[in-house]
Design goal:
8-stranded mixed beta sheet, 5-stranded mixed beta sheet, about 35% helix, D-Maltodextrin-Binding Protein, domain 2, 15 strands, alpha+beta, Fructose-1,6-Bisphosphatase, Chain A, domain 1
């Protein structure tokens, strides 16, 4: 996933992505822990709430008005328009957490140019946190009102690494449970922090690896610029430079090849 330098266009796109996140938060946060939250089941047996739908509609409305020539690919309403410049949106990543009242959920907004994410914003309003990046501009977060630049860790030994594996069931369904056990046996600490939060912990230098299987582009696209601009690396689980392989391996960069070897030997 080769990046291009920051341009004025990307600066404007990042500003727009941050405004999209504001609009998303205004829809999602008031519905969190709402007694009348509407929940239904999709064809793949995953859940969707009225907040997921309203949040994606709000984002699409702004994009259709301000970027009519760009394409949109969202979890709830699919793809439309150009794939050259495509906004990739997960309105609520972590819907299962959202509907159970667990605050580890967030909106993921990315702009991909020819399939490569160049702008990414992740907003987790229930935690009062947001992360963002654009190619060439670094990776940032807010704690309160002050932006702070973030950096992946300098850990260079698997013995000192902390990893997030998402879920045992996910790795088992992918036929990769032996790989998970191998990884866990070579690192200092393994936990399943889950969903987009794991990638943000990685970008902040608090983890050294996150890996997932059976993921769509909207599950990971926004994390790519943030991890990359923080000095980390994201590929598919086999090392391919793509967001379309239905798997992902994110690391602090220094240990990427070591984790690839562990997972694929």
């Amino acid at each position: 996933m080769t990046a291009s330098p920051l341009t004025d266009d990307l600066r404007h796109d990042l500003d727009l992505a941050l405004r999209l996140a504001d609009a998303a938060d205004a829809q999602s946060l008031p519905r969190f822990e709402a007694a009348d939250l509407e929940i239904s089941t999709k064809a793949d047996n995953s859940h969707v709430t009225d907040a997921d739908l309203a949040t994606e509609r709000a984002i699409r409305s702004i994009l259709e008005a301000e970027r009519p020539d760009d394409g949109i690919f969202g979890e709830e309403f699919g793809a439309q328009g150009s794939t050259h410049r495509q906004w990739i949106v997960d309105p609520i990543d972590g819907t299962a957490n959202f509907l159970r009242g667990v605050p580890l959920w967030g909106t993921m907004i990315a702009l991909a140019v020819d399939g490569v994410p160049q702008v990414g914003v992740v907003s987790m309003p229930a935690l009062g946190r947001r992360w963002w990046a654009a190619t060439g501009a670094g990776a940032w977060t807010t704690v309160g009102a002050e932006p702070r630049r973030i950096q992946a860790s300098a850990v260079s030994s698997l013995d000192d690494a902390s990893v997030s594996f998402q879920s045992i069931a996910q790795w088992s369904d992918a036929g990769r449970l032996d790989s998970l056990l191998k990884v866990a046996g070579h690192v200092w600490r393994d936990r399943a922090y889950g969903d987009v939060y794991s990638y943000m912990l990685l970008a902040e230098g608090r983890l050294e690896m996150v890996a997932e299987f059976d993921v769509k582009e909207y599950d990971i696209a926004a994390a790519v610029p943030i991890v990359r601009e923080a000095g980390g690396r994201m590929t598919a689980a086999d090392g391919t430079e793509t967001i379309s392989a239905r798997s992902t391996l994110a690391t602090n960069g220094r240990l990427h090849d070591d984790f690839l070897q562990l997972m694929n030997d």
